[in-house]
Amino acid sequence: MSNQHHLSLHQLSEQAVQKALELRRTVATAESLTAGMVSAVLADTPGASGMLQGGVVAYQNSVKANLLKVSQELLADVGSVDGGVAAAMAAGARTALGADIGVATTGVAGPEAHDGKPVGTVYIGIATAAGTHGFEYLFSGSRAEIRGQACGAALERLFEVLSL
Question: Which of 91, 126, 102, 92 is nearest to 28 (CA)?
């Protein structure tokens, strides 16, 4: 995946949208730290209406639990910044929005640590009919830079799961 890092968010989104359209797969997002950036970048890409179902901005744990059905116990045990939570958010978006693939972001954009996790800790969740996975990243930079890198990672993981 490291060869992807020179691509812009726009290029990563184009790749993912084209692949999803080719495969006739639909996508739903659940975003915490990126707060809608992933769905906005996807929607900015021509053809997105053929694959993007919708997205949920789940900033607060109450929204993660109530709307996305993330386990209250899990949130209480590990906090919101966790690979299992990212995976559960992705699964919740997939189910709630009726999509083939769910993509989720959760993490710490800064400036303060959160739930005991340092600034720059990010988890991307991916959910498909085959199962769910959480992927861990550690980014550095400003709040905006970390959010941008998280968005890029989500688009990379989406393209990767579409390419399996």
Answer: 102
d(CA 31, CA 38): 8
Domain borders along the chain are 2-162
**What tens digit of pLDDT does each residue of 107-149 get?**
999 999 999 999 999 999 999 999 999 999 999 999 999 999 9
CB atoms inside a 10 Å sphere around CB 112: 8
Residues of the chain with pLDDT > 70, as a percent, come to 97
pLDDT one-digit tens code per residue, 39-66:
999 999 999 999 999 999 999 999 999 9
CATH code reported for the domain at 2-162? 3.90.950.20
Q: List phi, psi (to 5°) of 29.
A: -115, 150
- Residue 69, SS3? coil
Return d(Cα 137, Cα 162) in angstroms, integer: 20
- The count of other CB atoms within 10 Å of the CB of residue 84 is 17
CA distances from 85 to 13, 18, 80 (A): 24, 28, 6
Q: What angle do CA 56, 22, 154 make, to 5 degrees?
A: 35
| N-to-C CA span, the chain | 13
Q: Token pair 């790749």 is at which residue? A: 15
